[in-house]
Model the fold of this input.
Amino acid sequence: MDNLVAASSRTPAHLWAVGVVGVLWNSFGCVDYTLSKLYPATYPASVGMDAEAQAYMQAFPAWLTVFWALGVWGSLAGSILLLLRSRHAIPAFAVSLAGLIVSQGFEYLSGYAPESVHTTAVIATSAVIWTALVFQLWYAIRMKTAGVLR
Done:
């Protein structure tokens, strides 16, 4: 019986890999968000945003900014909680997914976004973000089911 407890309390190597890669990946979103808020006049241009896209981003309503923040900070929290083997990683990733759904839903469905926001590169980046976040949520649920998260 002691062997079963010891075996179930070990952290699988793949959890460390997913967690560390998740922290690094999700940190980029947090840095992007932070720099966009701290330096709205210069940061967007430094990453290649044209003037029309910058004006669009600066005109975001406050509620949309809240969902953007939930998206990026929720995913970073989820990755950290995953490394801590906390079951709370699941709701953190779920909150992040809600933030992504609302913020990108507004962007794609509102009709306000300029064409430069819908380039192939931006759409491909969005697809990678969606894939990574859905994977992280699925993975956290799987680890909870396996008894790895407490």
